[in-house]
Structure formats: C-alpha cells, structure tokens
Amino acid sequence: MKTLRPLALKPLSVREIRPAGWLRRQLEIQAEGLCGNLDRFWPDVKDSGWFGGAEEGWERAPYWLDGLIPLAWLLGDKALQQRAARCMDCILDRQQPDGWLGPGTSQKEKSAADLWALFLILKVLTVYEDVSGEARVQPAVRAALRYIDRHIDHYTLSGWAQMRWFECLIPIWWLYERQPEEWLLHLAQKLQAQGFDWFSFFDAWPYRAPQEKGRWSQMSHAVNNMMMLKSGALYGRMSGQDRHRLFAGRALELLDTYHGMVTGVMTGDECLSGKSPVQGTELCAVAELLYTLETLLSVTGDAKWADRWERVAYNALPAAFSPDMWAHQYDQQVNQVEASVQKDPIFRTNGPDANIYGLEPHFGCCTVNMSQAWPKFAASLLMRAPGGLAVCGYAPCAAETTVQGVPLMLRVDSSYPFRDSACITVESAQPVCFDLLLRRPGYAGKMFVNDTPVTERDWVRLSHSGTKTVLQIRFAWETLQEARPERMTAVTRGPLVFAAAIEEAWRQIPSDDLLKAFPHCDYEVLPRSEWRYALSDSAAENSVLQAREIGAYPFSPQGAGLSMTVPAVPIAWDMARGAAAYPVVPRRTGDDTVICLLPYGCTSLRITEFPLITDDP
Questions:
Q1: CA 199, 201, 207, 211 torsion: positive or negative?
Q2: Which residues of 95-129 are buried (b: 16+ CB within 10 A; e: fewer)?
Q3: Which of 50, 73, 106, 279 is 20 to 30 A off residue 353, Cα-Cα?
Q4: How far is CA 474 from CA 239, 416, 420, 563, in A?
Q5: Beta carbons of 603 and 529 less than 8 angstroms apart
Q6: Contact (CB, 8 A) for 415 and 559
Q7: 3-state secondary structure 116-138
C-alpha cells in the first residue's frame, strides 16, 4: 500500500505549548474580545444550526471553533474549554447514521449541499481531538469521510468545495496516519480529480492585472488563492511529484509579482486587486495565508515559509483589529489614512462599510475566521524535527514535551519582534542528547548564538546534551527601504514593516441594532494629524530606533514596543473616495522634518508606502 511522505516538521500538541509574554497577553485579549464572546450574543454562533439553533448553519460556527478551541487550551482557560466542549458535543451528538455532520439533514438538502463546511468541521474535529482526547472524534471523522466518498460518486464537487478540495486532505491524512485504509487514498484522488485544477491553472495564469470593478471570480478570489498555496504540498505527500512539491513557490512568485504587498499578503478586496497600497486585503485572506504558511513549513521544512509567516503575523494580522479585538475590518489598506463608510468605495468588489472597524463589516465570515490566526501561530512556534526539536519562531513561548521518552521543557524568553534577541533554555529531567534546530531568518542581517556568528543558512543545527542548555540569540537587523511600484518606498527592519503613525480619532457609528451596541459596535477611524510626507532614499540610513515598553495592548499606538524616527518631506497629496490618491507625484510644501514610524501592526491609520523624493541639487 502507498504511504504518505512524512512531515519534515511535525507540530507539537497544542496541549504541550504555553504562550508567554506579549504573546500570551495577545491571546488573552482575543479571549476577552469578539472571539471569546460571540456565542453569548451573535446569532450566527449563539443560535447556529450546528448547535441546534435556527441561524446560519454553514461555515461560521466551524470557523469560530477552529480558533476558539486552540485558544482555550493554550490559555488553560477552563471556562472557555467547557464552552467549546459543549459546542463540540452538540455537533458529535447530531451526526447522522450515514455519517453526515451538521444541519440540513434531509436527503434533498444533502444532495444540494456545498461540502465546504463539512471539510471545515472535519478539520476542526482534528484540532479538538488533539486538545481533548475525545474518543468519539476518530470514528466521527471516519464516518463523515465515508459519507463524502459515497456522496461525490453521485454529486460531484461544486462551489466553494470544488475550489477548496485540498482542505479535505487535512482530515484525510490525519485519519490515514491513525487508520491507514486504502479507500482514504482513493478518496483523496477523487477529490483532486473533481476539484479545481489550480496546478494547471497557474501554467497559464490570467490574473496579471486586476479585474474590472464589480467583476467577481472564484479563481481570482483572494481567500481561495491564499488557501490554494498549500494544495500542492498537501497532495504531494501522496503523489510524490515535483510538480506538486514546487507548486507553492511558483504560484506565490506570480501572486507577489502582480498583487503582492510589503506586509507579505496580496491585495484582495475581494478579488486580487493589483499593487496599489489603497486596495484592500480581506482579513480572511490574512488568516488563511498564515495557516497555509504553517502547513507549508510543516510539510516541507523550508525556512522561507517561516520568514513570510512572521512578516504576515506581525504586520497584516494585528492591523486588521482594534487593539482590544472587539472590532475588525473586512479590508485593510497598506496606506490607510481614513477608515470610513464610502458610498463609492475604492475597493473593486466590496461594499461601503468594508473598511470600517466593527462586528461584521461587509460580511460576517471574517468575524469568525479571524479567530484561528493567533492561536495557530502560537501553536506553530515549536515543532518536532527528525532527531529532536525545531524553534521555528522566536515569540515568547514554552513547550513541555518529551524527546526519546525523557520529559523536558523548552523555553523561549524574548520580546521578539520588538527586540532583536531571545534566550532559549532546554531543561530535561535526565540526561538526553538530541538535535536542536534554530531557524535563521532570511531577512538581511546577522545572527549570533552565544556571541558566535552563525554561518549556516535557514537552520542552525545544535545539540542538547546533559540536563540543561542555555542559548543566547541575537539578530543584527538592518533598517532597509524596500522599493515599491510607482516610485514608492517602504521601511522594514527584520520581520517588521514600519508605518507613519497617524493620530487616530475613533467615532462610534450610531445604530439602533442591539448587535451593534458597545463593546461590539462599529467605528469609523479618522485622522487627527498630518500624513502627507515623502521620504528620500537615505531615510532608512538616517533613522533612529527607540525601544519602548510593550504595553497592555501590544499592537496599539500606545503599547508599541518599538518606534523609529526618520527624516521626511511634507508634500501635496490628494484624497479620493476616502483614500490617499495613488499614484502621487510628490511636490514639496514645506521644510524637511522628522516623523515617527511605528510597527505596521500597531497602527489603525498609516502611511506605509511613501513617495520617493529626490533632494534638489
């Protein structure tokens, strides 16, 4: 029987990971905000059809659970765990004898079903089994996959399930590694054959320019594209073909070339929208790209995926929420000087409120799908590697696990990425020898371990022997300027992108809808300071970095752990439809000055791509 190619890096159990420092605080903020409270007031979760209610019974409750479950166990929050368990009991208790999971149980409803939500809840069940050890999960997943196997013999994949067929490989491979039955491999082959052929599509990819305003396409849909990047790696575990193994790199290169932003994401409001910094990126696309990158890192072991993962997680992800995570945007802009309701928005397919911060601006998918991003990021920082353990990211965390049957603790003490150092400590209950892999980020700069410069690329292989190892890690980041289209420039340092800090005025939008009552209300955010500046090509080399105390809300203007000043030039810069005009030809309007930049993720209003200006001779 064919076997699956093993994972290059195997995620630890969520039960073994403990977030610390600012990362734990960020997860606490998530639990205190929308994610930890939707089941108390939002009908699409509180009264979901998945739990026996009469409201939405498709993707929203599964999306929410996909983040709530790891969040509850990472925090050790017993009350949150109990609420998650009650929801999962409702789902498991309602499984039909034929294996169907979820609402819509009549034959007519099942025959017409888009199976995407079923794929999604099966992925959630694998997460739940990991944290809870619930004995009913494995037989429930097997029965549901058996149902899918029979169903698609008569009703081939369509709609969202056809575009996202590879997502079902996640529960299929999970089950196959526990119960290696050949029909699971056949099911994977059938799904690939019936699903959209992303592999061939990118051989002659047509989306090198944005579609015209108002034209919507599944194939150009940003979230679909962020998800499909992992399709080749997942399917390649069975096929073994280089075409599948290399697919993500080839597809991402095209997406970056024509739609990539400095924050590591693509524009997509809601479909791929080019490289203008005022086109938006949907929050679901950010969350799904992070999960895709975690999957690619695990399957391939290629450190480049972790570089992109950190860039997205520390910039695009936190920028999409209010600092307290009670409100979020549907679309964020790299140059976002105002977040307001617009009758004729700049976005190509999204509506007037897509840019505001609120409960469910434009559409409610992001309200729930945003829940998975931070918990899964935390759970992916440390992984198993052949012969030992791998430190994939340097955010503060710890793992209590075993290697060669010996209990041990691996701890990462840091304020990374707000600081450029970390201390890694391994303490084992008894002497044990194993490999310890440290990722060397690919950002420009040097890495030192115990003051010794690192010469290896990607992964530094060290060893733990005895009972205690302490490693002092230091990065010598350079402040750089990244060239952007239309003679724009962006400032980066290590994994962080920096943006001009525009003073923000948050205005609650009046509403008679009780769902929009404080704290889960809607806001416009308006500028209260100047933002019309250009930078010269020497701005980075003349920058001054200032370490600050990380606040109670780490991703906020007040809580930012780092700031930077750079020389700048005031210019004339128009606005149109609530956005900074693009492109812009800079024209001086005043004397040279100095402006403050903050990490992109700490801003709600910002200029990130600045016009590049040449000093007069």
A1: negative
A2: beeebbbbbeeeeeebeebbbbbbbbbbbbbbbbb
A3: 50
A4: 40, 10, 6, 19
A5: no
A6: no
A7: HHHHHHHHHHHHHHHHHCCCCHH
Q: What is the CA radius of gyration of the chain?
A: 24
Q: What is the value of pTM for the model shown?
A: 0.98
DSSP symbols for 262-303: TTS-B-BSSB---S-TTSEEEHHHHHHHHHHHHHHHHHH--T
Structure letter (DSSP) for residue 55: B
Q: Is the dihedral of CA 500, 501, 505, 506 positive or negative?
A: positive
How many Å apart are CA 432 and CA 450, to the nearest integer? 21
Which residue, 372, 345, 394, 322, is CA-closest to 601? 322
Distance in angstroms (rounded) separating the CA atoms of residues 343 and 214: 14
Hunting for tokens 């022997």 — which residue is that? 465
pLDDT (tens digit, 9 = 90+) per residue, 198-225? Answer: 999 999 999 999 988 999 999 999 999 9
CA gap 262, 443 in Å, rounded: 13
Q: Do residues 100 and 108 lie in contact, with contact meaning Cβ atoms separated by under 8 Å?
A: no
**Residue matched to tokens 């697919």:** 247
How deeply is 212 buried, as exposed, middle or buried, from its count of CB atoms within 10 A (0-12, 13-18, 19+)? exposed
**Percent of the chain at pLDDT exceeding 90:** 98
Our CA angle for 292, 295, 298, nearest 5°, is 150
In terms of phi and psi (left: phi > 0; alpha: psi -120 to 50; beta: otherwise), the region of 242 is alpha
Total residues found in the chain within this entry = 617
User: What is the structure's pLDDT at 352?
Assistant: 96
Tokens of 59: 């993707």
pLDDT band at 617 (very low <50, low <70, confident <90, very high): very low
Closest CA to 377 of 428, 436, 312: 312
290-337 pLDDT, tens digit each: 999 999 999 999 999 999 999 999 999 999 999 999 999 999 999 999
Output the pLDDT for position 445: 85
Six-digit token string for 583: 């492109």
Report how far apart, in Å, the C-alpha atoms of 269 and of each of 38, 260, 298 are: 25, 13, 29
> Which CATH class for the 383-477 domain?
mainly beta
> Quick one: residue 218, left, alpha or beta (phi over 0 = left, psi -120 to 50 = alpha)?
alpha
232: helix, strand or coil: helix
Span 488-511, average pLDDT: 97
- Contact assessment for residue 303 and residue 439, using Cβ atoms and an 8 Å cutoff: yes
- Residues 6+ positions from 106 with CB-CB distance below 8 Å: none
d(CA 494, CA 111): 51
Element (H, E) at 83: helix 78-93
Distance separating alpha carbons of residues 540 and 283, to the nearest angstrom: 29
pLDDT at residue 9 is higher than 70: yes
pLDDT tens digits for range 58-95: 999 999 999 999 999 999 999 999 999 999 999 999 99
Give the span between the Cα atoms of 246 and 337, in whole angstroms. 39
